[in-house]
Amino acid sequence: MRLALLLPIFLFPHSLHADKLPAGLLDFSSWKLTLPTDTQRQGRADEISTPDLQYFSHPEFFFINSSGDGVAFRAPCGGKTTKGSKYPRSELREMTESGKKRAAWSTDDNKFHEMTVKLAVTHTPAKKKHVVCAQIHDKTDDVLMVRLEGKKLFIERNSLEEIPLDDDYNLGTPFEIKIQTGKGKIKLWFNGKQKLDWGKSSNECYFKAGCYTQSNTNRGDKADSYGEVVIYQVQVEHGDTP
């Protein structure tokens, strides 16, 4: 029966193997998690709120990797999707520090907004080998995405030209992305080298990180074919523009 699959079976008491939970490795105090499942509300992708995320793990889609140094985010091509998207995700969405409200800032702010994330794309679907691992999103659409297509890792900005990061990326290779906005600019560094300095005005923005698999069964992939991203470190800061 469907009730047997409810998410709370993966919520553990704080005293029970807390060091084995994803929150034992990463700070989730400013995030919520979207999963490619629909056990909470049939037909809609599940979300794990900030407080519950401290004690949450999923054996298939959100778990500590085999080497114990990162959190694996996995999204199968047959997974449930969010409203307005045709692709599945196991992905963090930025919240305020209390976790009660969705983060919503402007690239035009006099304060800076910054996400630094160390991660690796570890698996892509068999047919359409496309995975997004980091984003800035606004109220209606993605503003910027860090995307892998086959071996090509790049910055995507909708209809604008792509910004190459690595033309020969090998799955499992860790890399660091730093994205910073403020005073009408979006800047991005890849492994410490600045790759983007873009004049862009966008409101009600927030960061996202994890695995947003860019394929589904209509694209020729099997339902259990999947994308996977391992995050080793993630940090978000907001403050006075340096």
Put the structure in a nutshell.
The protein has 242 residues and is an all-beta fold.
Descriptive account of the structure:
This protein has 242 residues and is mainly β. It has one domain: Jelly Rolls. Helices cover 2% and strands 43% of the residues. The protein contains 1 helix and 15 strands; from the N terminus they run E-E-H-E-E-E-E-E-E-E-E-E-E-E-E-E. An 8-stranded antiparallel beta sheet has the order 2-1-5-14-7-8-9-10. A 7-stranded antiparallel beta sheet has the order 3-4-15-6-11-12-13, with no helix packed on it. A hairpin with a 4-residue loop joins strand 7 (130-137) and strand 8 (142-149). The longest helix has 4 residues, at 50-53. The radius of gyration is 17 Å and the shape is globular. 40% of the residues are buried.
Using only C-alpha atoms, the radius of gyration works out to 17 Å
CATH class category label = Mainly Beta
Largest sheet: 8 strands, antiparallel
| Major beta sheet, strand line-up | 2-1-5-14-7-8-9-10
Task: Kindly report the CATH topology.
Answer: Jelly Rolls
Number of H/I helices:
1
Question: Please, how many domains?
Answer: 1
Provide the CATH architecture: Sandwich
Helix % is: under 10%
- Note the beta-strand portion: 35-45%
What structural class do helix, strand and pairing data support? mainly beta
Distance between the termini: 55 Å
Strand count: 15
Mean pLDDT: 91
Q: Uncertain regions: pLDDT < 50 for 5+ in a row?
A: 1-16
